[in-house]
Specification:
Radius of gyration: 22 Å
CATH topology of the largest domain: TIM Barrel
Number of helices: 10
Strand content: 15-25%
CATH superfamily of the largest domain: Alanine racemase
Structural class: alpha/beta
Number of strands: 19
Bound molecules: pyridoxal-5'-phosphate
Low-confidence stretches: none
């Protein structure tokens, strides 16, 4: 799905942006990914979008009519999701440190709050009493699982959610405060590319959720198995084969409904829905050869696309898929490394990749850039203007 841009499209996008660097997200590519998933997933599964992956208002508006809900993690994201047209009923609010004003806003809006501690349950109960309202409270589980296939692990020895072994007590606390139990939420790892790992994870979480609800003697209305599905960005990564994951979700959905007939299974991917639809376009400013290595210096970099540059889990940049659009194609190719404009050693977009020979002024397109781009980057660092971002 990682579609390349034709030169005509690229120049039309550049005219729209006014200048480089900028992000452009393809509507058709987003729709294509959703259609593929819908064809594979159980029809009743609630497919939500994790807003943190890309909170661009136009994208949220587009998605509000195509997916079944949104996962938000701040009052700001909540406001954006509601403004984009997501119904409060279909919004879940996760996050380990929700401030009192955010809890009040969530209760006021009527969204499902995924509580991440017993202290948070008490605060929600306090706000409900003060506001004369009730709240839909799900609990975020933190299972103690070994997850080997992901790049980022968010369960086990981490600060997310409530330890699974403590969940029956947390459910009892919720009920003692007069709050309805609105389900269980899992989000254990991200950037997972191995279908077998994901299947095993979903199995473990579902087994655990069913056991917890049986032990607590409660009905399970909603089981959210999270997101975390990866897209390949480095040469050593392969695309996730989603079919076995979906096939397993059909079986889990049947098991869930056999035990809890009114239960709804949910997912909340971010990256997987939008990453491959997005492109980050920058321009070559300079080129130089030092000690045998040719560097292209471009006007985009870590301040706007942090995840495409050096990462803590890699000594080298991932070398995101990139295409160079030379003014005058000569057919000549060269091996280059690519750095951004920051005075920072991590501002490296690629190391030792092969591209057509580049000259200053040429456009460089970094693909796979629709998720965790500008909004997940230190855009104020060095005072460059923020990049434009739009749908096409
Ligand atoms: C609670 C929660 N849900 C969903 C997501 C989306 O993850 P991804 O974009 O990897 O699918 C995240 C990402 O950190 C998250 O923390």
């Amino acid at each position: 799905m990682n579609a390349r841009l034709t030169s005509d499209v690229l120049h039309a996008l550049l005219a729209q942006a006014g200048d480089t660097p900028f992000y452009a997200i393809g509507r058709d590519a987003v729709d294509g990914r959703i259609a593929t998933l819908r064809a594979l997933l159980p029809a009743t599964l609630q497919l939500c979008f994790a807003v943190k992956a890309n909170p661009l208002p136009a994208l949220l508006q587009h998605l509000a009519t195509r997916v079944d809900g949104a996962d938000v993690s701040s009052a700001g994201e909540l406001t954006r999701a509601l403004a984009a047209g997501f119904a409060a009923d279909d919004i879940g609010f996760t996050g380990p440190g929700k401030r009192d004003a955010e809890l009040s806003a969530a209760i006021d809006a009527g969204v499902r709050i995924c509580a991440e501690s017993t202290g948070e349950i008490e605060r929600i109960a306090g706000h409900c009493a003060r506001l004369g309202r009730t709240a839909r409270v799900a609990l975020r589980a933190n299972p103690d699982l070994a997850i080997t296939g992901s790049r980022v692990r968010m369960s086990g020895d981490s600060f997310f959610g409530i330890a699974s072994e403590d969940l029956p007590d947390a459910i009892a606390l919720l009920r003692s405060r007069g709050l309805p139990f609105a389900g269980l939420h899992y989000y254990c790892a991200s950037r997972m590319l191995d279908a077998a790992e994901i299947v095993a994870l979903h199995d473990r979480c579902t087994d655990e959720a069913l056991a917890i609800c049986a032990r607590a003697g409660v009905a399970l209305a909603w089981l959210n198995l999270g997101g975390g599905f990866g897209v390949p960005v480095a040469a050593d990564e392969r695309a996730l084969d989603f079919a076995p994951v979906a096939e397993n979700l059909h079986m889990l959905d049947a098991r869930l409904r056999a035990a809890h007939p009114d239960a709804r299974l949910a997912l909340e991917p971010g990256r997987y829905l939008v990453a491959e639809a997005g492109h980050y376009i920058c321009r070559v400013i300079d080129r130089k050869t030092m000690r045998g290595r040719t560097w292209l210096i471009v006007d985009g970099g870590a301040h706007q696309h942090l995840q495409a540059t050096l990462q803590p889990d890699r000594l080298q940049p991932a070398n995101f898929p990139m295409t160079l659009h030379p003014h005058a194609a000569t057919g000549e190719r060269e091996r280059v490394s690519i750095a951004g404009p920051l005075c920072a050693p991590f501002d490296v977009l690629a190391r030792d990749i092969e591209l057509p020979r580049a000259r200053p002024g040429d456009l460089l397109v970094v693909h796979c850039s629709g998720a965790y781009g500008a909004s997940a980057s230190p855009v104020n660092f060095l005072g460059h203007p923020p990049p434009a971002e739009f749908l096409f």
